[in-house]
Amino acid sequence: MSTSLTRRSLLVRGGLLGLAAAAGPSLIAACSSSPASSAKPATLSGLWVPYDPLIDASKAAATSWGAANGIQLNIATVPWADWDRTVRAFPQQPTVPDVAIVDGPALLGYAANDILLPLDRYFKPQDMQDFLPGTTPSAMRKGSFYGPATNESSQALAYNKDLLDKYGITPPTELSKAWTWPQLREIMIDIQKRERAARGNDQFWGMFLGQGNFIGGGTYTGLDLIRSKGAKNSNTYKAISDDGLTVAGYADTPEAMEGYQFLQDLYIRDGLTPQSKSPDFFYNGQIAFWLTDPDVAVTGIAEKAPTMKWGVTPHPYFVTPIVQTDSYHLGVPKNSPNADWAAKLVADMVSPANGLILASKQKAIPTRKSLVDKADYLRDAHMQVFTETASQWAVPRPITPGWSEYDTVYSQMLADIATGADISKTVSKAVSDIDAQLARYQSLVR
């Protein structure tokens, strides 16, 4: 399994209010322990997730600033399963990192809990305008900006080209010509029926929905389908209230309920998607389409199926094209003894010059609009659809200080629906549970 897939399957988040259960000092012992001071430090400590492409890219992006200022960035890592609670523990710890990798959807919660330093004064208006639309909203709280993304994500349909050529199907590559979900469904039904007959067994499916670690696609992928049911800026499209505290009237609209039924039909009535958690179906030639992100697709296929001929077609939709994105951000703990120097480093790491290094070393989409046409690898046919989607269709996942709770309940709801649960009862309970959890954050938001 590729590193990209492993990091998604191992990530475990806890609630932001559970600070009493947060990680102890041993997890961040490698971080700075000097008293607060305005003096220039010789080193800055960083706490990263154990993902080598991101670590290597970060070191490269920090090199020029470090050399110019005589400051070295020392990076330590924390296990995936300890990541969120380690960040939540910063205010209680005597030693904290100067810079930390934080997850985009969780940023609002960290900001609301006064864990991170606002970084507004380190970024010019033109910087903020240059960031891609899917990355900035999650990092904003009450007009303050809490950290730039290291790269941007995206989602689209990877497909087995040899298989589709066999049946005379040429998927669109232009966003304006993207298939709707009903169109894709009809195509998948036909391919699956004919391919199963040709193989003489039923171990072939039309598609796999998501990165491999969720049935129903999880919040990241499955919610795209539901949100696209609504007109732009409708409650269905928004998925959550503007204050991030309510999903009733958003996640259970008539349009959303139709979307849940369609999702369930993909798994149950039509049997177009296997009810298993595995990314290997595509590599093994057992599915025609894979709704996934470029990180997983490009890296995974290169590792698992290097001889496969494949392509990418835009994300399907119902009424409004929508693709949830965002990725890892750079944050500065508020109680870092070197917060000012750390913030200056963060700003420089995502400058146009270093932002291109940061993205290129990961073979990822840059976080700046001005950089998306600067790297050769982004002009590759496999990346173009992903990149254009991030520029034109991207939105953040629902922005809420209770992201962990929301994500956990909503992803489980989609999994239950995909495996045949009563839709009305399942959605009703999930909406009630989510709203009860989010209500705990009212004092932090209002």
What's the total count of β strands?
12
Global Rg: 22 Å
Q: Report the total helices.
A: 18
Identify the CATH class of the largest domain: Alpha Beta
Please outline the major beta sheet.
4 strands, mixed
User: What is the CATH homologous superfamily assignment of the largest domain?
Assistant: Periplasmic binding protein-like II
What structural class should be given to the helix and strand makeup? Answer: alpha/beta
CATH architecture of the largest domain: 3-Layer(aba) Sandwich
Determine the CATH topology of the largest domain: D-Maltodextrin-Binding Protein, domain 2
**Ends: how far apart?**
44 Å
**Which runs of at least 5 residues are low in confidence (pLDDT < 50)?**
1-30, 32-36
Beta-strand content: 5-15%
Helix content: 40-55%
Could you characterize the architecture of this molecule?
The structure is a single chain. With 446 residues, the protein is an alpha/beta fold. The chain folds into 2 domains: 3-153 and 326-395, D-Maltodextrin-Binding Protein, domain 2 (3-Layer(aba) Sandwich), CATH 3.40.190; 156-324 and 402-445, Periplasmic binding protein-like II (D-Maltodextrin-Binding Protein, domain 2, 3-Layer(aba) Sandwich), CATH 3.40.190. The chain has 18 helices and 12 strands. The protein has helices spanning 3-10, 52-69, 83-88, 107-112, 125-130, 161-166, 181-199, 218-227, 235-238, 254-267, 280-283, 294-304, 339-349, 352-360, 381-392, 403-418, 423-438, 442-445, and strands at residues 43-48, 72-77, 99-103, 140-141, 144-145, 156-160, 205-209, 287-292, 310-313, 323-324, 328-331, 394-395. A 4-stranded mixed sheet has the order 2-1-3-11. Strands 7-8-6-9 form a 4-stranded mixed sheet. A two-stranded antiparallel ribbon has the order 4-5. It is globular, with a radius of gyration of 22 Å. The N and C termini lie far apart (44 Å). 51% of the residues are buried.
